[in-house]
Write a structure and sequence with these properties.
The complex is a heterodimer of chains A (217) and B (263). Chain A is of the alpha/beta class and 217 residues long. Chain A has one domain: Rossmann fold (3-Layer(aba) Sandwich), CATH 3.40.50.880. Chain A is 28% helix and 30% strand. In chain A, the strands form two sheets. Chain A has a nine-stranded mixed β-sheet with strand order 2-1-3-4-13-12-11-8-9. Chain A is globular and about 45 Å long. The longest helix of chain B is centred in the N-terminal third of the chain and has 17 residues. At the A-B interface, helix 1, strand 8, strand 9 and helix 6 of A face helix 3 of B.
Chain lengths: 217, 263
């Protein structure tokens, strides 16, 4: 049985994510195996690039249902960038693409006139303390690179926000045992490494990354 | 608020950093891993490695160098120099680069940009625009694209090429003025302004930084989103921290440098 599984569906930042996990001193398996996803105690879905390609690759790899079922089982889940956007119902990137539908809402583009991609270090403001941000200051800087951002249908799924060019968008979303970041913690220096370390420690020690209040609902 | 990025650039050959670096106390100033880690601690927002290796064997050592650096340094790494095919791009990205920078090969075969953007995503395709002023165009400045490390003129207009590169899928432009590069007298602000007005993607200013005012000018007047510099850092004249403090003091949004040991 594999504890920490990083889902390999050809995403470009796979190795960086694996390196950040290794830096936390945790062994992880990078795999495209549906069985490994089903058996995981902590699942990480990375991703860069386009929504259509991401979903096409997940479908081709037979990973859509295993990921949905894993999340439905309530075990700890971390999504990064495209691995976060894929959780929503529809992405408007390059048309209209159906995604995993784990969280209600859409992925929309930044307004024209702004420099896109939104690329670089921006501050992340938590709405309320969250266990994966333990030891990370409010308004800490993380590295972003994206042209689209989530617009959740349920405001309660917004964990942290970031402002860019007058647009305030969710930088972290989640519910229960699921958390997903628009930024790249694996490219965000010490704070990013801490986020991975927190996620892994909580997932493996407690089986839960959820805030205490959410766990009771 | 999105901060402006400060990006040190290293020339590497055969997997070693070759340009003199004297500001940090290093056991081995040529070791890219040690150097990258020192710049990361010092507050660098990204790192650019420019591979000037000519030989095939040297290329392999660059891949190894990128892999070792990416194992230790968790900020974005861009690698440029000698990238000619999507296979080169794939190899760079697989070993640990986050972005690849292309110049000569993209001018010779612009489809390389679209192919790379399609396969790997625009976010990792940086097009390097090496531009030189056209003599006699002072009243309405024009710039010509140079390739082969600035040695070969192409007859192509820099602003038009910048637009085309972005249409083809470049996620970022690295704009170097061949006129100001190496002189430490400031960036070509008109060039930066012309490019950043012409495209929607981020622009990295390069070529000419000699003092903190120059970086301010590139960001404030040139409209650049990031500044790349080599000598100003490597020769120990300024630390990244001191430059960030200066820029922040003038109202440029900066990611603060972490206190030593905070990690």
């Amino acid at each position: 049985m594999t504890d920490v599984v990083i889902v390999d569906y050809g995403a470009g930042n796979l190795r960086s994510v694996a390196r950040a996990v290794a830096h936390a001193g945790v062994g992880a398996v990078v795999t495209s195996s549906a069985q490994a996803v089903a058996d995981a105690r902590a699942l990480i879905v990375p991703g860069v690039g386009a929504a259509a390609d991401t979903m096409a690759n997940l479908r081709a790899g037979g990973l859509v249902e295993p990921i949905r079922e894993y999340i439905a089982s309530g075990r700890p889940f971390l999504g990064v960038c495209m691995g976060m956007q894929a959780l929503f119902e529809v992405s408007e990137e390059g048309g209209s693409h159906e995604c995993l539908g784990v969280l209600p809402g859409r992925i929309v583009r930044f307004p024209h006139g702004l420099t896109v991609p939104h690329m670089g270090w921006n501050n992340v403001r938590l709405r309320a303390p969250h266990p994966v941000f333990e030891g990370i200051e409010q308004d800490a800087f993380f590295y972003f690179v994206h042209s689209y951002h989530p617009r959740p249908a349920d405001d309660a799924h917004v964990i942290a926000e970031t402002e860019y060019g007058g647009v305030t968008f969710p930088a972290v979303v989640g519910r229960d045992n699921l958390v997903a970041t628009q930024f790249h913690p694996e490219k965000s220096g010490a704070d990013g490494l801490r986020l991975y370390a927190n996620f892994l420690r909580l997932a493996l020690e407690r089986g839960s990354i959820a805030p205490a209040t959410a766990a009771t609902t | 608020m999105l901060t402006k990025r400060i990006i040190p650039c290293f020339d590497v050959a055969e997997g070693r950093v070759v340009k003199g670096v004297s500001f940090v106390e290093l056991r081995d100033a040529g070791d890219p891993v040690e150097l990258a880690a020192a710049y990361d601690r010092g507050g660098a927002d990204e790192l650019v490695f420019l591979d000037i290796t000519a030989s095939h064997e040297g290329r392999a050592s660059v891949y190894d160098m990128i892999a070792r650096t990416a194992d230790q340094v968790f900020i974005p790494l861009t690698v440029g120099g000698g990238v000619r095919t999507t296979q080169d791009m794939r190899q760079m990205l697989e070993v640990g680069a986050d972005k690849v920078s292309v110049n000569t090969a993209a001018i010779e075969r612009p489809e390389l940009i679209s192919e790379g953007a399609h396969r790997f995503g625009s976010q990792c395709i940086v097009v390097a625009v090496d531009a030189k002023r056209v003599p006699g165009s002072e009243a309405a400045p024009r710039w010509e694209i140079y390739v082969h490390g600035g040695r070969t003129p192409t007859g192509r207009d820099a602003i038009e090429w910048a637009r085309e590169a972005v249409q083809r899928g470049a996620g970022e432009l690295l704009v170097t003025s061949m006129d100001t590069d190496g002189h430490q007298q400031g960036y070509d602000l008109q060039l930066l302004r012309a490019v950043s007005d012409a495209v929607e993607v981020p622009v990295i200013a390069s070529g000419g930084a000699g003092k903190p005012e120059h970086l301010y000018d590139a960001l404030a007047d040139g409209g650049a989103d990031a500044v790349l510099a080599a000598s100003i850092f490597h020769f120990g004249t300024y630390t990244i921290g001191s430059i960030k403090e200066y820029l922040a003091g003038r109202g440029v949004p900066m990611r603060p440098v972490r206190a030593e040991g905070a990690a």
